[in-house]
Amino acid sequence: MLLAADTTRLAIEAKLFRGFGDPSRLAILSALCQEPLTVGAIVGLTGLSQPNVSNHLSCLRECGLVAAEQQGRFVTYRLSDDRVAELITLAEGLLADIALGVYECTRYRVPGDAQTE
Question: Which pTM was predicted?
């Protein structure tokens, strides 16, 4: 039986992983793994629209995954903690080993994935 504290911890962990669960947010986090970037640079690297990037950055800041620093007229975004990049690197390594199973999984729907629609 799960205790209330365990249930709360699991709910918070699931919320953390939702930050990584959206392809746009994951693209932004992956771009920020290399270096701090402005919105314009993130747009250029990810191919996402500026409003989309700004919206997701707001979400990522609110959740504590990304930090922002004003530099003159521009705001530079960076990962709030080096462990965010480590988590992405670990996921990439795991995915390299289990990619076929994840790709063929019909239980987790990925928006825009023709296989699951």
Answer: 0.83
